[in-house]
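Posting for a labmate who doesn't have an account.
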Amino acid sequence: MHLPLKGIVVLEFSQYLSGPCAGLRLADLGAHVIKIERPQKGEAGRKLAIKNLWAGESSLLFHTINRNKDSFTADLNDADDMKWIKLLIREADIITHNFRPGIMEKKGLHYEAVKAINPGIIYTEISGYGKEGPWKNKPGQDLLIQSLSGLTHSTGNYHDNPLPFGLGIGDYLCGNQAVQFILAALIRKKKTGQGALLQLSLMETLIDFQFEFFTTYFQSKRHHKRSAINNGHSLLSAPYGIYQTIDGYIAIAMMPLHKLNAAIACEALKQFEEKEAFEKRDEIKAAISTHLLTGTTASWLKKTQPLDLWVMPVLNWRQLKETEGYKVLQMEQKVQLSDKAITTTRCPVRINGQLLLSDKPAPAVGQHTENIKAALSLKL
């Protein structure tokens, strides 16, 4: 397959998650992504292990978001190494970095300096909180930014403590937003030859992610309130939420109460009118919760799904993998390491019906340095 970004060169001055997530997706689309790393140690994300899982000398997490990339090592404080970096910049289309504000300026690699070498460069910088203000030098770590952004008050029930998403949601979303705007900048560059400076922060990304909550707050001046029972979305009426059954859980999305009751036949639900679905949502959810504990997950699905009601079982990953719905998506792929293959997820997009797969593993530190230097030397 001729991938859409084939021939595009990306220099990734990035570490941990947000910048490398952007690079991963660009690599999936065919770009030649070159990680610029410290000699010997490489980028700090190599040692960020989840559940103490390792693949060779790097963490398993590092391999999941740095597959299909090359590694070029350079000491940015060394004049000779910087000559090679500037040669790479001359050949590049895109630069990404997610260092704290001021770091790239100290290295002489801020946008204006890079633009002087390559006027058409698309320069993408990701920060924790933006380049200005009192938080700009605070650690841009996902949990900390979730906590500051108010996101932890959207999960769990009303009486629960603030709860974070159990994923690096800010890193992942910000990395993918960066890709969206990089692609837009590439289109403009194709038309006009003009490069771009793109600036994103995890904080802005998570505020944007909560646009429903913020818009409601701006108009009402009132903070959204989580349901006391089975909260699924603070702004939605009953029955929206996750409910326990005899042997598991089911998720019930938006629907009129009378349509749900036509399927589950809950006597206590009959006393509520549709107009009370938000005002009395905790009482309504309590009635539904008590009733659903009298049947199994399968029994409730058998009653609701033939009526095309928005009800689904709640699965863990083992159960998900056993379903035909998961199998037909073919979301798994193998990445071949030197001594074994690991299974990870693939790019979730098909192009002309074809899956975007690559078994190329994350690079060893500096694995491609000499080959890249040799290629650059031919152009001198």
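Reply:
Got it, the structure tokens are right above this. The two ends are 32 Å apart (CA to CA).
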